[in-house]
């Protein structure tokens, strides 16, 4: 059985371990311990017994915009709805805080579309990015 709960400082080391393969595969940005501590304040973990098998966080930029950060589910626990449950918790938190828009940047567009995300809001501008070399 998988439980979804608010992340705490006690989960930080397990979260770092969880995201390491995703960082190596260049699916997630590298995060140091301090960043994970900060992200865990508005984050959620998926627990199998006492082991973190999933994580997602919300970074609030303003009352207008927030972003799902660091969404990861351990490979052997994928395709069980855990990612969708984590995204749902992020959506609920963002809505409760009165933020107008929640974005997610991902290599898995079909997954996010299943969660209710779309490429842009109707009649809204789109984000374009400029990449500064390989860092």
Report on this model:
The chain is α+β, with helices and mostly antiparallel strands and 135 residues long. It has a single domain, classed as 3-Layer(aba) Sandwich (Aminopeptidase). Helices cover 31% and strands 25% of the residues. It contains 4 helices and 5 strands. The chain has a 5-stranded mixed sheet. A hairpin with a 2-residue loop joins strand 2 (43-48) and strand 3 (51-60). Helix 1 (12-24) crosses helix 2. The chain is globular and about 45 Å long.
Quick summary of this structure?
This protein is 31% helix and 25% strand.
Compile the SSE list and pairings.
Elements lengths: L1 E5 L5 H13 L8 H8 L2 E6 L2 E10 L4 E9 L8 H15 L4 E4 L4 H6 L21
Parallel strand pairs: 4-5
Antiparallel strand pairs: 1-2, 2-3, 3-4
């Amino acid at each position: 059985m998988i439980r979804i709960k608010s992340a705490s400082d006690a989960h930080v080391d397990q979260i770092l371990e969880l995201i390491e393969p995703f960082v190596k595969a260049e699916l997630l940005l590298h995060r140091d311990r301090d960043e994970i501590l900060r992200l865990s304040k508005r984050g959620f973990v998926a627990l199998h017994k006492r082991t973190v098998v999933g994580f997602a966080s919300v970074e609030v930029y303003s009352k207008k915009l927030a972003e799902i950060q660091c969404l990861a589910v351990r490979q052997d626990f994928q395709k069980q709805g855990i990612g969708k449950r984590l995204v749902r918790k992020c959506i609920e938190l963002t809505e409760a805080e009165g933020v107008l828009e929640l974005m997610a940047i991902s290599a898995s567009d079909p997954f996010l579309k299943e969660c209710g995300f779309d490429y842009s809001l109707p009649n809204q501008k789109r984000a374009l990015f400029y990449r500064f070399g390989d860092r």
